[in-house]
From TrEMBL, chains A, B:
<dbReference type="GO" id="GO:0008654">
    <property type="term" value="P:phospholipid biosynthetic process"/>
</dbReference>
<keyword id="KW-0963">Cytoplasm</keyword>
<keyword id="KW-0012">Acyltransferase</keyword>
<keyword id="KW-0808">Transferase</keyword>
<dbReference type="GO" id="GO:0005737">
    <property type="term" value="C:cytoplasm"/>
</dbReference>
<comment type="subunit">
    <text>Homodimer. Probably interacts with PlsY.</text>
</comment>
<comment type="similarity">
    <text>Belongs to the PlsX family.</text>
</comment>
<dbReference type="InterPro" id="IPR003664">
    <property type="entry name" value="FA_synthesis"/>
</dbReference>
<keyword id="KW-1208">Phospholipid metabolism</keyword>
<protein>
    <recommendedName>
        <fullName>Phosphate acyltransferase</fullName>
        <ecNumber>2.3.1.274</ecNumber>
    </recommendedName>
</protein>
<dbReference type="GO" id="GO:0006633">
    <property type="term" value="P:fatty acid biosynthetic process"/>
</dbReference>
<dbReference type="GO" id="GO:0043811">
    <property type="term" value="F:phosphate:acyl-[acyl carrier protein] acyltransferase activity"/>
</dbReference>
<dbReference type="Pfam" id="PF02504">
    <property type="entry name" value="FA_synthesis"/>
</dbReference>
<comment type="pathway">
    <text>Lipid metabolism; phospholipid metabolism.</text>
</comment>
<keyword id="KW-0443">Lipid metabolism</keyword>
<comment type="function">
    <text>Catalyzes the reversible formation of acyl-phosphate (acyl-PO(4)) from acyl-[acyl-carrier-protein] (acyl-ACP). This enzyme utilizes acyl-ACP as fatty acyl donor, but not acyl-CoA.</text>
</comment>
<keyword id="KW-0444">Lipid biosynthesis</keyword>
Amino acid sequence: MEYKNVIAIDAMGGDNAPAEIIKGAIEAINERADIKLRLFGDKDKIETELNKYTYNKEQIGITHTTEEISCNEAPAMAIKKKKDSSLVVAIKSVKSGECDAIVSAGSSGAILVGGQVLIGKGKGVKRAPLAPLTPTAKGVSLLIDCGANVDARPEHLLQFAQMGSIYMEDVVGVKNPRVAIVNIGAEEAKGNALVKETYPLLKACKNINFIGSIEARDIPKGEADVIVTEAFVGNVILKLEEGLASTLIHIIKEGMMSTTRSKIGGLLVKPALKDTLKTFDATEYGGAPLLGLKGLVVKIHGSAKAKETKTAIFQCVTFKEQRINEKIVAHLAEEMAQAKEEKAGEQ
Amino acid sequence: MEYKNVIAIDAMGGDNAPAEIIKGAIEAINERADIKLRLFGDKDKIETELNKYTYNKEQIGITHTTEEISCNEAPAMAIKKKKDSSLVVAIKSVKSGECDAIVSAGSSGAILVGGQVLIGKGKGVKRAPLAPLTPTAKGVSLLIDCGANVDARPEHLLQFAQMGSIYMEDVVGVKNPRVAIVNIGAEEAKGNALVKETYPLLKACKNINFIGSIEARDIPKGEADVIVTEAFVGNVILKLEEGLASTLIHIIKEGMMSTTRSKIGGLLVKPALKDTLKTFDATEYGGAPLLGLKGLVVKIHGSAKAKETKTAIFQCVTFKEQRINEKIVAHLAEEMAQAKEEKAGEQ
């Protein structure tokens, strides 16, 4: 049988690989009959895990690989040298068209380099940003860029805003997403050189709903849908959110265990609190796509478990159905044509 | 009577001025007999507030001013034009030596500009950073710089690390404080151009305890005492911490109100939780000093209430007793002499 969606899974990447990754894969195919998964990694290990489950065998394929890339290796070198690693072979299956997308919980650096080098950027794309969804009080926002593209230029940020808008509208389903740039004050005159140069470009861009600057304190409140920033700041925001949320939840739990009274109270609030905190759990929202490539690469947390793996697989399907990369390239081409026309008009 | 510590208070700055600022001032002098406060602002309004309290009248002085600087004004222009504003007159009282320090909850920009322009930087100080204490799971860390010094250079960050170490050791009492630079990975090779250039300078600096890079997720855990970063990123960290903590606490409270069971539990855990969350409340730790000036300027939150005002006043006293600014200038002079010597040795 031909499957509409074929997703490559790096079965060896991540802290909980292969067990949790394969568990998530099985959960995904048991929920949807239109997905086929190809697992890349050590065949014996993969089969040991697969044997634990009941599933439609047609929906799983295995490609045996002999190497693994660890998080401590220099990414560019690892991608170049470890040609038979689960990650490299899986990424190449997207390049060749065998698979539609790849999900990996492996080394972030290697995923970023691998995606850009082995698959390549779409026409007109200057840089491929990593764009995770982050939980807010109102739902989710797209934080773009959180990758390794440090020292970005204004024209990169402009493209990130455009790519992010397309993603939020077509994958997440937010109508006319509000785009904001991270700044240290609300006024246009504030900010560092990069923000000051980028601001007018975003303001002039007709195809996005630019609402101006956003201060970091308003990000968790959900005041914008697409949060544009260069990767260093994006990375700081993403990791601080994760670190602070887990630290706060930890000290709240400790606080609840501090007296007999609070222990009893803690037991009573637990179920309600669990639901609430779930909405603020980054792992609920799947993975972070590397946008603008000629194929889809989705990075999930190194600590990803079955749930996140499954969500990321479904995300890939929506991404493919919505033809996001094609839309991005078309959008950028249109933008360039417009810019050329305007330039010609000026002369 | 001569007072050892004379602190200027901008009675008109901040969302809760003058009521809460003056309440905090009274609480401070009622706790310590060795402090005199000079309140700058509208005399009538100040006296109306003062009349609510019982206190030693000798410990309070008033300087009447007729103008106020709002948060919406361009800082440099406001400082230049509003010569009779509470903030400008109060800052000048530090410059003249009448007061030892100033505390203000007014416009951040105006405080930063006013401090640097009207008081001036200490000898050898390249930039004056704003350095707030931020709560962590283990206590507090100093986040330096969070001011308006965007687009910093490596030599600025090096000085921030040195100033921050002196502050944490002598004001906060942390022995041999651990200094780390904010980065997007733990390895020396990671980061943007600024971090890559700053890293070796920090590593080579003999007078600080440099422990390397810190990822944002480890900041709330308290993995370093002095967190060095340029002001844009520092500002993002500071505001994101405040925004996320308040958003999380809000949704946790909502979660507790969602069922009858959780409501009862919420009542039982409330006292214990209040104590716990207090340790994570930034307002508990007073204000943020502008380090390296020829006088002490302390900025407190625009939303500061009496408690934060009082804590900031006590912070000023410790700062003065420990002769922090003198130590900073001496430290930088020593550093410069060493560098010269080494250069001479090389030739």
